[in-house]
Amino acid sequence: MTETKTIVVFLKYRNGSIFALFPYEDADVAGMYCTAYAHLGQHHGADYNGYIRDSFPAKPEEYADLKKELESIGYDLIEKQKKSNRR
Question: In this model, does residue 60 exceed pLDDT 80?
Fold first, then answer.
């Protein structure tokens, strides 16, 4: 069985909250929202452009715990920069 790699962008809000944005993982059947993940709230739908606009790239030391949590639940991650296009 091959594992599927998941593209992720780790971002940070101005208040310091770190989250992961999965630009190619749809959160709804219409494909309007992508999937995001945070320590609190875990998986949720996200407006990709809104999240990109309202945050900035997190540093590896800032998102290390979140990355570890995602990998512990089965994600095989490919990290991308904030400028990644959704589609």
Answer: yes
